[in-house]
Structure to design on (110 residues):
């Protein structure tokens, strides 16, 4: 999870979408654990791929999913979502509106 977070923040060509399971609290994040022990290959550093490594602030898969859900349903997201949609899908993608929103370096002035 940490590597993906770093890549998305630092590589403008790296796009990720979170699947609905990242916000579904009914299964407690069970998809983050390789309970069947499937052979998922190895990472570039030679470590075996197994369970998802959660951020240090998360105490469990259930806690991680609950925090993502709480953030998604927060007042801040509700108040800001329309601005983000304009950046990703709307009129602030290119030209002067994109430049005014500082949409070229991973930050926004929203």
């Amino acid at each position: 999870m940490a590597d993906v977070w770093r890549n998305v923040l630092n590589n403008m060509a790296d796009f990720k979408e979170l699947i609905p399971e990242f916000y579904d609290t009914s299964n407690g994040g069970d998809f983050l654990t390789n309970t069947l022990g499937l052979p998922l290959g190895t990472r570039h550093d030679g470590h075996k791929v197994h369970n998802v490594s959660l951020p240090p602030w998360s105490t469990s898969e259930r806690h991680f999913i609950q925090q993502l859900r709480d953030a998604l349903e927060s007042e801040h997201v509700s108040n800001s979502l329309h601005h983000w949609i304009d950046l990703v899908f709307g009129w602030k993608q290119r030209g002067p509106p994109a430049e005014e929103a500082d949409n070229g370096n991973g930050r926004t002035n929203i």
User: Anything to note?
Assistant: The CA atoms of residues 14 and 99 lie 20 Å apart. The helical segments are 2-10, 61-72, 75-88, 95-100. The chain has two domains: 2-73, 80-110. The mean pLDDT is 82.
